[in-house]
From TrEMBL:
Keywords: Glycosidase, Hydrolase
Active site: E373 (nucleophile)
Top-level taxon in the UniProt lineage: Bacteria
Pfam families cross-referenced by the UniProt entry: Glyco_hydro_1
Family: Belongs to the glycosyl hydrolase 1 family.
Protein name as annotated: 6-phospho-beta-glucosidase
GO terms for MF: beta-glucosidase activity
Hydrolase recorded as keyword: yes
Length: 475
């Protein structure tokens, strides 16, 4: 069969901090992701090594204005509808709903903004797929409480989700609790608003923050089902299996360990308990989690309905120290795989690794999968006639969609839908650039935010429209 299952949810994905802009409009407060500058210090700030809790002179902050989706959402959603989107993945900016994060009463302007966005989607028959927090934490919560290191964050998050599930009942039924929850280990300020003091036990702090997010995610799952039994709530992983660099048993086991480090996050959210290997690892690291009475029952009784994930490339592992970190990726450094080509930004391209990753996730959890990020960041040129011929993007997506089809048809993997990353050009999370473009729709802005903001359809726009119209039969 060439077609995908009936009702397959084709669409595209964005994040509030990479597309909305309007950072100080509608009562919105300041968020961690607003404060990650473009340039040489970006990674230090993302990691929490360089503390930046307010705008500083001499830096450019691309999330402040991004692509101005805050004002152009009607135009943009209309374009998504022209492609035939069945679903649109977007995220909530927490500080639009609770500007500081710890208020008792939500901000009506922020609630109305998202209500209008969801209604605009519904007008075209597009199901919103909503990430509750996509690397988004009000900066006040970092300054006052230490962000997710503090148990009080569970209460603030619970308040947020109660408001969202209640207000948008009937408008939204697909939810993700945290974007790429495993990224907290690799870019903790970006992922969770964490910053670290001198001599702080960073691993202890990260694992405790993760536990608080696990509890918050389980609470959200519980509350979401109580408020609306139609809700489907998933977790979200930055995925991509590690291969061993060689058949040396040490390389094979090193790849196994790295895979396990990632899958740990879904183990807790989908199986409902800490796996034995993770407990052993924390003991070796001298980490003691503050687990409250009732936490374990909450995790056990409120596992997610589905597993969502991002996939851009596979990874490769070796015990040879001279090979470490020789290629780029979605924040993760990896040994370069000599059998794979790479994008302009060094991300290795591996469609079969996509199928492999889906098989691993489905075999391990036996829950439906939802591919919520997959795409190619590339430098697009506008031709003299005004067209943008992004055949390289079409080729990347075509091969990955074929691999997904094989996972479904040949391997029996249950996949709910596919939302390509950056369906409209937006600010790159890893580099803060606009020139690293993913979209079917070009946005006329440069790396410094200069330009008209005009939306221009790329060649891939019509291609993806045909893919959706044929339910994957035409690639």
């Amino acid at each position: 069969m060439n077609k995908f299952p009936e009702g397959f949810l084709w669409g595209g994905a964005t994040a509030a901090n990479q597309c909305e802009g309007g950072f100080s409009e509608g009562g919105r407060g300041l968020a961690n992701v607003d404060l990650i500058p473009q340039g040489s210090l970006r990674r230090e700030v993302m990691n929490g090594d360089r503390i930046m809790l307010d705008f500083e002179a001499g830096f450019y902050y691309p999330a402040k204005h991004a692509i101005d989706f805050y004002h152009t959402y009607k135009e943009d959603i209309k374009l998504f509808a022209q492609m035939g989107f069945k679903t649109f993945r977007l995220s909530i900016a927490w500080s639009r709903i609770f500007p500081k994060g710890d208020e008792e009463t939500p901000n009506e302007d922020g609630l109305m903004f998202y209500e209008n966005v969801f209604k605009e989607c519904k007008k075209y028959g597009i199901e919103p797929l909503v990430t509750i927090t996509h690397f988004d934490c009000p900066v006040h919560l970092t300054q006052t409480y230490g962000a997710w290191k503090n148990r009080k964050m569970v209460t603030f998050y619970e308040r947020l989700v109660r408001v969202l599930f209640t207000r948008y009942k009937g408008l939204v039924k697909y939810w993700l609790t945290f974007n790429e929850i495993n990224m907290i280990m690799h870019a903790p300020f970006m992922a969770a608003g964490l910053v670290f003091e001198a001599h702080e036990d960073v691993m202890q702090a990260k694992y405790q923050a993760v536990h608080h997010q696990f509890v918050a995610s389980a609470l959200a799952t519980k509350i979401g089902r109580e408020i609306d039994p139609e809700n489907k709530i998933g977790c979200m992983l930055a995925a991509g299996q590690y291969y061993p660099y060689t058949s040396n048993p040490e390389d094979v086991f090193e790849a196994h360990l790295k895979n396990r480090d990632n899958l740990f996050f879904v183990d807790v959210q989908a199986r409902g308990e800490y796996p034995s290997y993770a407990l052993k690892e924390m003991k070796r690291l001298g980490i003691t989690l503050d687990i409250h009475e009732g936490d374990e029952a909450l995790l056990r009784e409120n596992t997610v309905d589905f597993i969502s994930f991002s996939y851009y490339s596979s990874r490769t592992a070796s015990v040879d120290p001279q090979l470490q970190g020789s290629t780029s990726g979605n924040i993760f450094a990896s040994v370069k795989n000599p059998y794979l080509k790479a994008s302009e930004w060094g991300w290795q391209i591996d469609p079969l690794g996509f199928r492999y990753t889906m098989n691993v996730l489905y075999e391990r959890y036996q829950k439906p999968l939802f591919v919520v990020e997959n795409g190619l960041g590339a430098h697009d040129e506008i031709c003299e006639d005004g067209t943008i011929n992004d055949d390289y993007r079409i080729e990347y997506l075509k091969e990955h969609i074929k691999a997904m089809r094989d996972a479904i048809e040949l391997d029996g993997v249950d996949v709910m839908g596919y939302t390509s990353w950056g369906c409209i050009d937006l600010v790159s999370a890893s580099t803060g650039e606009m020139k690293k473009r993913y979209g079917f729709i070009y946005v006329d802005l440069d790396n410094q935010g200069n330009g008209t903001g005009k939306r221009i359809k790329k060649k891939s726009f019509d291609w993806y429209r045909d893919v959706i119209a044929s339910n994957g039969a035409i690639l």
